[in-house]
Amino acid sequence: MTEPLAFTGHDLDRDDHARADPAQLAQLRARDDARLLALDGVMPRFENGALLTTNLSGTGENAELVYLGLRQGAPLFVAVPPQGDMRQAVTMRETMMALMQLPSAELALFGGARSIADWHARHRFCAKCGGNTQIAKGGWQRSCLSCEAQHFPRVDPVAIMLVEHEGALLVGRGRGWPERSYSALAGFLEPGESIEEGVKREVWEEVGVRVRDVSYIASQPWPFPSQLMIGCHSFAEGRDLLIDETEIEDARWFTRDEVADAMANPTDAHSFLPPPRTAIAHYLLNHWLENMA
């Protein structure tokens, strides 16, 4: 069976109704059981397979805290760090390996907290007038102190797609990736296009292949910094490639047996090295082997 997607399956009650009530938020912060998720910047602190939390003492009334919700009935907050972090996960291999020690609920909790804390750290000024902004609605909004514009946490949609042709899959590799590493093609959706249109455009732009019959498989929040990966499957009209080397370094077709070899031997496969288990691309390849190939 395909494994659950990383960064999904948190156990929070988001307690949305409390966000817009300053008095209720103040009461939640004052509770003896209120906890603060411990971060180094926007990366987690954990031990023995669990995220570390502390009490709220010492944070101060004016500290920028985001109310994440209730966890096992207790209020949980995360502090906004001085700076955000725009690094991609591929540049943090040791950190990503360490994160895999966390159970799925812990990993999902961290992912959401990282995304929202990072967004606040990078949006302290108004995009409309340049004025200072302040945290609002428990951290799920920022309001401009000058023009009163309201800003909300952003999630960037990314289409990530399997491209199939007569039992083979097309996968690619980005610049700077480890040798022999390949993954599903992907790209940001643009304004004014559907998911299906985005899949077709990205595949055509990156490798010069026309695809049809785009279907949805699954989605994954990806907190580096804050994306929603929308996993899809499509069928190619042919196998001729015209690779845009400004987008990707290489792309190749692999047979079902070669994909199965990669997934069964992730560190020493003869065909290629697959994406890590934390990535939705890993899920998509397993899904294809189990259900579509």
From TrEMBL:
GO terms for biological process: NAD+ catabolic process; NADP+ catabolic process. Residues 153-280 form the Nudix hydrolase domain. One of its GO terms (molecular function) is NADH pyrophosphatase activity. InterPro entries: NAD-cap_RNA_hydrolase_NudC, NADH_PPase-like_N, NudC-like_C, NUDIX_hydrolase-like_dom_sf, NUDIX_hydrolase_CS, NUDIX_hydrolase_dom, Znr_NADH_PPase. It is an enzyme of class 3 (hydrolase). Its cofactor is Mg(2+); Zn(2+). Keywords: Hydrolase, Magnesium, Metal-binding, NAD. The keyword Hydrolase applies. GO terms for cellular component: cytosol. It catalyses: a 5'-end NAD(+)-phospho-ribonucleoside in mRNA + H2O = a 5'-end phospho-adenosine-phospho-ribonucleoside in mRNA + beta-nicotinamide D-ribonucleotide + 2 H(+). Its EC number is 3.6.1.22. It comes from the Bacteria. Belongs to the Nudix hydrolase family. NudC subfamily. PANTHER family: NAD-CAPPED RNA HYDROLASE NUDT12, NUDIX HYDROLASE, NUDC SUBFAMILY. This is NAD(+) diphosphatase.
